[in-house]
Structure formats: structure tokens, C-alpha cells
Write a structure and sequence with these properties.
This protein has a domain of 79 residues. Helix content is 67%, strand content 0%. It is built from three helices and no strands.
Length: 120
């Protein structure tokens, strides 16, 4: 044990390494840096999760829109069929007994001859 100095009570205190204030500050900075990095990473992960959820919702809504548009197609065709003038005129003549008025049956009124509006 020649390589080691003699240890006495007084000299043993000088051999113990004390943590300096700088070492404590650097470990605090290191921990704070890691906490910030983890916080930022969690923020970005949450943003990505929200984006994926919204993307799924948009896909669902687009599918619903497509289904609704497909269900509207037959209704548009039916509307076109039912609003054809010749079909309407044919039904009016056959089922309701209506006919185009003759010139004698048409009476034209002037604005002054119109009856007064009575809401009483």
C-alpha cells in the first residue's frame, strides 16, 4: 500500500469528492431538457392521433355523402318522368277531365277590375 497516502481522520475528508454546485445545475438542466423533449414529443404524438381520427371521420362522411347521392339519383329520374308536360297533360285530360280552354272561355281583367283583398 505504498501508492496510497496514509489516511487519517483529517486527510480522509480531503479525499472524498464533493459534488459541486455546477454538477447539480448541469444535472438539473439535463433533466429539464429531457422533460421538455418528452413533452414536445407527446404533443406531436397527440396531434398525429387527432389528425388520424379526423381523417377517419372525413372518410366516413364521404361514404355517407356518396350513399345519399346514389339514393337521390332514382328520385331525380322519377321527378323528370313525372314532370314531363305531355304526361301531365294526358293525366289531366283522362283522369280529371280537363281540357285547354277555348278563346271564348278566357276572360281578361284589368288591374282596376280586380276585387279588393278582404282578409276579414
Amino acid at each position: 500500500m505504498k501508492d496510497f497516502p496514509r489516511q487519517t481522520k483529517r486527510s480522509s475528508k480531503s479525499l472524498v469528492r464533493k459534488k459541486t454546485v455546477i454538477a447539480k445545475r448541469s444535472s438539473f438542466r439535463f433533466a429539464l431538457t429531457w422533460i421538455l423533449m418528452i413533452g414536445v414529443a407527446l404533443f406531436f404524438v397527440q396531434q398525429r392521433i387527432n389528425f388520424i381520427k379526423l381523417e377517419k371521420e372525413v372518410q366516413i362522411l364521404l361514404k355517407q355523402k356518396e350513399k345519399i347521392q346514389l339514393s337521390i339519383l332514382p328520385l331525380k329520374l322519377e321527378e323528370r318522368f313525372l314532370t314531363q308536360h305531355d304526361k301531365i297533360e294526358k293525366r289531366a285530360r283522362e283522369e280529371l277531365g280537363l281540357q285547354v280552354p277555348r278563346q271564348v272561355q278566357i276572360i281578361k281583367l284589368k288591374h282596376s277590375q280586380l276585387p279588393a283583398d278582404s282578409n276579414e
